[in-house]
Each structure stands twice: as C-alpha cells, then as structure tokens.
Amino acid sequence: IEWSTMNIPGLSEVYLSFCDDFSIQQPLDISSIWRDNEHVLYEAGRAPYFRENASGEYGISIAYVYNLFNRRYGRVYYRHVASHVPILLNRTIMNKIRIEWKDEFDEMFRNKPFRTEHDMQFQFTYQQYIRHHYPFVMASEPHVHFVGAKNDEEKNIKTFEKVLNRPHQFLCLQDDFKEEPSDVIVKQIHDFYEEVYPYEAAWELDATGIVRIKTKSVYEIVMEWFGRGKKRGERWRLAMEKKGGKRQQG
C-alpha cells in the first residue's frame, strides 16, 4: 500500500504518511519532521541482518533490504528499523528508490497483496535511502509510545497510565489479543482514547454517519484542541476510582 500512495491523483510532492495505527499525543510542528533543510528520522532497535535472527516474514524482509543496501553502499553493521511513527515522504525520492531497485520492486508487486520475505519494507527502505543520499538528523528520545493492548484489564491499566502520565510526540497502540477481546476490554480501550482525545475532531462522523464540516482549518482546530485547559477523561478517572486506583501526578 505504502509504495502505491505516490500514485494517488492530486497528491502533493511532499506529504506526511499515516499508513499505520499512529496517532499524535503532543502538538506536531514542522520541526518534528523537517529541520534546517534536513530530514528528521525516527529510529528504534537494531534491524536483523541475518534472516536466521529475524522473526516472521516482516523481520525477514527487513534483513532482505538490509543486505540489498549493504551490497549497494558497503557494509553497515548497525542499521536500525524505523519507529512506528508517521513519516514525511517525497514522491521524487520514492520514485528514485523504485527505479534503483526495479527488479526487486517488480517481484514484490507480483506477490501483492500478500506480505513476503522479499518485500521492500517501506519505512526501513525509505529511511535507509535517506541516510545514504540526503542530509538528516535523528529525532530525540523518547518520541513514541509503542504499546500493545492485551485481553487483561489490570495490565492495560498500567500500560495506559504510563502513556497518559508521560505523553510523547506519537502514540502507536496495537492489539496483542490471542482471542476475541471481552466487552470490558473494548470499553477500556474506548475510554482510554476518550482520555487522550476528549474533543470531537472536525472530520468526525456524527451518529448518522455524516461528517460535520467546520469553517476553521484542520491546523486551527488541532492547535485549539491542544491549547484547551479543561479537565480531561472523566470516564477514565471514574473507572480508576471504582477499581481503587489513583492517577499519578506529574
């Protein structure tokens, strides 16, 4: 999907991609993604170099791209995977990558829509290419909460409290369910998001499924939302009090 977004009609030359379960916890300004004519790169742990050390097709595809780049640019021992955050993309750069590894992309697209061990894994490929061809700066740590919701109410409380007490620039909440979550867990996740995002967005659907268009720009609405000083998340606090928990301060 990610490599095909560049073909969307009318898409700008440079755009911010949210092609995953990302969200923003703190105000996002241009310096978070582009600083002094340099790309801002968000990286996490070391990427697997040997496929034997990789986990699943996703991990093996990372090792596959790792080795492609080492053969092209020389051995680099410590490449890192991209963090689970939005990424600033340039269509010209994406096209250069696709041309440079045309055979590999042709093979990948023949296998779509299925993930394979020979995928040109999107964020890892893009950021490694930036490292070899363009000026960049590394984002400061910590910059993202990358957490998994479980089918365990007590564990979720600890996870969600950590996120709420120490907000980072980005939030990536994924499910870690081995079975269908209970109604209690679903409500718990719903209440958590109500705490993080207590105000309706301009593009939210109402009860009838209609988007309520407002006259303000998205930027104005988002900055106004972050600037509000009202108490947030009453439902979450009530749930915590009911369970005998107390929200930490600071």
From TrEMBL:
Cellular compartments per GO CC: Golgi apparatus
Keywords, ordered alphabetically: Transferase
Domain of life of the organism encoding this protein: Eukaryota
Limits of the Stealth protein CR4 conserved region domain: 162-207
Single GO MF descriptor: transferase activity
Coiled coil (UniProt feature): none
InterPro entries, alphabetized: Stealth, Stealth_CR3, Stealth_CR4
The Stealth protein CR3 conserved region domain, residue ranges: 83-130
Name of the featured protein: Stealth protein CR2 conserved region 2 domain-containing protein
